[in-house]
Amino acid sequence: MTNAINGFKPDFLWGGATAANQVEGAYNIDGKGLSTADMVKYIPKEERGIHNFSMDVTADYIEGVLAGKVNDRYPKRDGIDFYHRYKEDIALFAEMGFKVFRLSINWARIFPNGDDAEPNEAGLQFYDNVFDELKKYDIEPLVTLSHYETPLELSRKYNGWYNRKLIGFFTKYAETVFSRYKDKVKYWLTFNEINVITHSPYTGGGVLIDKIPGKTKDQIAYQAAHHQFVASSLATKLAHEIIPDVQVGCMLARMETYPHTNNPDDILEAQHQNDLNLFFTDVHAKGEYPSYMNRYFAENNITIEKEVGDDEIIKQYTVDFISFSYYMSVTVATQGAHDEVAGNMIKGGVKNEYLESSDWGWQIDPKGLRVALRDFHNRYNKPLFIVENGLGAFDTVEEDGSIHDDYRIAYLSKHIEQMKEAVKDGVDLMGFTAWGPIDLVSMSTSEMSKRYGFIYVDQDDDGNGTLNRSKKDSFDWYKKVIETNGEEL
Question: EC number(s) for this protein (predicted)?
Fold first, then answer.
């Protein structure tokens, strides 16, 4: 008799992941309000440094845009027109054999100002239509409630998640969509990459830090995160009350961090960085603030203002599973001069000589995904779901229209192989949704040339193109991966 696990379970959820603000477009029709993402401008390559750039937006900039005094481009307003082409795109996902499709609901499509008394019916109907289309192909929706899409008016009027009032607005929104889609959606995520709020309070929480003088960015970010923790727990409570057999997860941008050397200082720094990252899943999964954060808060003059009952809410309503994005690992050094590398919105650390890098300078580390999965499993013993992983790269369309993206196939196959190894290690893995199954507007830079998809979209960085969809070589490859449940890579 053997208990060995050799591969993915039969009901493993294969699919792809997107965000409303990167694909939908239709930013000002059918009653939709502006979101924070609609104010994120296109950043030309020459304006980006190794640490990218600030993702935060100032209050004055927003007011200048709204007054017509600023003439930047905002590609997320148009996306790839999924709003009108969702049937075509979902048919292509079905052709690949998707079991699940991760998407987000744009909060401002449901409550245009965030604090509206009544929801926007046209917005609710759009997602009804999308979920019905997915149902035609037996594709399960995995829905993110907040994916960098805070209604802009909640930033202007309340300063986003720094204001405790957003808890009530969010739970009203959550209850509205849970009640509407209770028979159509059973997998939900609360906040996308919730830890990103500490890197960009505007991106992660619609917070305008320039409107809060005398407070450090960390103080602002962790206070806003506390409000999101409470809101996430209350949303989890509501979901279980409203939806039969629901599963609610949190979502983390996993920054697996290595020491550069075996110098104990490097090891301690890597441990510290991993703790700061996993703090967010500790709260969601264990239901309490970990003790190691007490020293960090004290040494950085951070005080979390809580109301009576907050800790009890967080403790009582923990998540059912943990989801995360994984694109790269990070290496840290405490001594000496080292070559730095780019990162996903954050400093990428120092160069790891054992790893290759993507076109955007992100270090490619498939085995780091296995490390991350094992760490999550050992720390929480909860089901895990990889909801973002993929390669952003330049693609070339050949004269015959073909797109040979062997580099994307190689990246994904190596990561899936390490997923399989983690499953053999005993990790409970629910599924895998590749980031950007169709080319979309980049979250950080709002460019199109950073392509992730199995499906090519004819649109360039300046917004020119037919928007026609075409298959890359990776399309048929991923179809075979799903058909064989990850056995043929």
Answer: 3.2.1.-
Residue from 192, 98, 179, 180 nearest 145 by CA: 192
Write phi, then psi, for 213 (nearest 5 degrees). Answer: -65, 150
Alpha carbon distance 28, 10 (integer Å) = 42
Looking at the DSSP bridge assignments, the partners of residue 151 are 35
Out of 24, 133, 140, 193, pick the active-site residue.
193
Half-sphere CA count of 138, side-chain side, radius 13 A:
7
Give the model confidence (pLDDT) of 272-329 as tens digits: 999 999 999 999 999 999 999 999 999 999 999 999 999 999 999 999 999 999 999 9
**Domains of the chain and any CATH numbers:** 13-483 (3.20.20.80)
Query: Is 388 labeled as catalytic in the residue annotation?
Result: yes
Distance of alpha carbon 368 from the chain centroid: 18
370 contacts 326 by C-beta, under 8 angstroms: no
Instruction: Provide the b/e sequence for 245-277 (b: ≥16 CB within 10 Å).
Output: ebbbbbbbbbbbbbbbeeeeebbebbeebbebb
How far is residue 302's CA from residue 215's CA, in Å, rounded to a whole number?
9
Give 92-131 pLDDT, tens digit per residue: 999 999 999 999 999 999 999 999 999 999 999 999 999 9
Q: Helices 121-136 and 165-180, interaxial angle, to 10°?
A: 50
In the block, residue with structure tokens 């959606």: 185
Query: Which of the residues 388, 399, 421, 488 is marked catalytic?
Result: 388
Which long-range contacts does 243-246 make (Cβ < 8 Å, 24+ apart)?
A: 243/178, 243/182, 243/185, 243/186, 244/182, 244/186, 245/186, 246/186, 246/187, 246/188, 246/320
- The CA distance from 129 to 215, in Å, is 44
- Look at the block and give the residue holding tokens 């992730």: 452
- Residue type at 422 in one-letter notation: A
Contacts of 69 (CB under 8 A, 6+ apart): none
